[in-house]
Write a structure and sequence with these properties.
4-stranded antiparallel β-sheet; 176 residues; globular; 6-stranded antiparallel β-sheet; 10 strands; alpha+beta
Length: 176
């Protein structure tokens, strides 16, 4: 009998065409050349490294980093290490729009900010909170709840509000 304990299996959970949740994803659903992405991506790097470029800004994804990509950004992905693994959510532009439509506070400046602030190193406490967040999202995607889409939209709204809160804090520090 072969021992597959250390072999991670890719798991995919889907909500129609609007939402995909991947566990143990090695290759992000991005091209190796810069292209305009149509979906939003939320990526948490479990281990390994990979190269990502967003609007000509090159970054090496590290373990315990959160990557947030918005629809319309020019992105490329390449050179994943042998051990690169992620938890990744792909959100359709329609669902992304629905998540943000309930938050009229987002200024256009926030979206310019997100062009260069797309990666976030996570502390141990941040990682614990993210894993809880991912667990709630996975629970809703796999449930038989009637309002799964709406519940996921609210969970996404929470994450984007957290990002907007960080942006507002940083913006207020720069103006004082």
């Amino acid at each position: 009998m072969q021992n597959n304990k250390n072999k991670e299996t890719l798991e995919i959970y889907v909500l129609g065409d609007d939402f995909k949740y991947y566990e143990n994803l090695k290759y992000l659903p991005l091209t190796s050349y810069p292209s305009n992405i149509q979906s939003a991506l939320i990526v948490y790097s479990l281990r390994g490294t990979a190269k990502i470029s967003v609007h000509e800004d090159v970054h090496w994804i590290q373990p315990d980093e959160l990557i947030i990509l918005l629809p319309g950004q020019f992105v490329s992905f390449s050179e994943p290490s042998e051990d690169f693994l992620t938890v990744t959510m792909v959100i359709s532009s329609s669902m992304f729009g629905d998540a943000l439509s309930g938050v009229p506070r987002f200024s256009p400046h926030f979206f310019f900010y997100m062009r260069t602030h797309y990666w976030y190193p996570q502390t141990e406490n941040d990682t614990r909170r993210l894993m809880n967040f991912f667990g709630m999202v996975k629970d809703k995607v796999t449930s038989n709840d009637i309002y799964r889409r709406e519940l996921i939209i609210h969970l996404l709204r929470y994450l984007y509000l957290e990002l907007f809160n960080a942006y507002e804090k940083e913006a207020s520090l720069m103006t004082t």
